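Whiteboard transcription, Tuesday session. T.W. wrote the structure tokens on the left side:
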């Protein structure tokens, strides 16, 4: 099956968590909004699903995935669907639920990271909420970032398989997502992240293990990987780490 991923074409954002899973599995997929309009792509192709009144189960926002007749929204939900089909999820129900729980926790983490630069409203420019962003980032770096990183370090430590992955003995979509979290934090908050990484050796090792996966490494070196930029979830404003 050829999957159709719908996400904004100029940012990594939440769509990147899905892209990493598709790339790692060498899945047949198309990033629709990044195609030229003459080939049925562009933002207009994405907006049709959001605005068309004939869409019986419309997604709230990108990313969403078209898989045959299915239209699946919400990042964690898309990965819940793709995981078993791409070999990125364990077979047992308890393990799959645990994996999904971790992905939902990553989603919470992503929201808090986003709110460091947009604590008041996403509809306002960063410049309109800089004072609030400074205060939010100070608290995030002091309280929330260590808590989240510490939690995932603990999960890695308590995995009975001792394989260096979050769940059972092989990589899953949550490992790929956690790799993306570390990459993004290194971009957005380089000094704070470097300091905390010294206390989270298992997390750093997981990041490096994912980066070395052949398909992931090829993707990161390709033009398909959109660079971090000031429009995405992870944004580097030096004043927020002052």
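and on the right, the sequence the group agreed on:
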């Amino acid at each position: 099956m050829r999957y159709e991923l719908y996400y904004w074409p100029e940012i990594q954002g939440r769509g990147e968590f899905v892209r990493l899973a598709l790339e790692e599995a060498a899945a047949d997929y198309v990033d629709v909004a990044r195609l030229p309009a003459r080939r049925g792509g562009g933002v207009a192709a994405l907006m049709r699903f959001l605005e068309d009144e004939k869409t019986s189960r419309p997604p709230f926002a990108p990313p969403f995935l078209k898989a045959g007749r299915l239209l699946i929204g919400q990042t964690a939900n898309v990965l819940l669907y793709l995981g078993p089909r791409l070999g990125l999820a364990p077979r047992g129900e308890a393990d799959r639920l645990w994996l999904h729980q971790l992905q939902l926790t990553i989603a919470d983490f992503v929201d808090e990271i986003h709110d460091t630069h947009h604590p008041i409203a996403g509809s306002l420019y960063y410049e309109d909420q800089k004072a609030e962003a400074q205060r939010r980032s100070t608290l995030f770096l002091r309280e929330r970032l260590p808590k989240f990183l510490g939690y995932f370090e603990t999960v890695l430590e308590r995995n009975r398989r001792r394989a260096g992955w979050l769940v059972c003995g092989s990589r899953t979509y949550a490992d790929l997502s956690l790799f993306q979290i570390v990459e993004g934090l290194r971009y957005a908050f380089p000094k704070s992240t470097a300091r905390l990484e010294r206390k989270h050796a298992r997390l750093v090792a997981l990041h490096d293990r994912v980066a070395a996966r052949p398909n992931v490494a090829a993707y990161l070196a390709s033009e398909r990987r959109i660079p971090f930029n000031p429009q995405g979830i992870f944004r580097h404003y030096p004043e927020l780490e002052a």
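Someone added at the bottom: The chain is about 50% helix and 5% strand.
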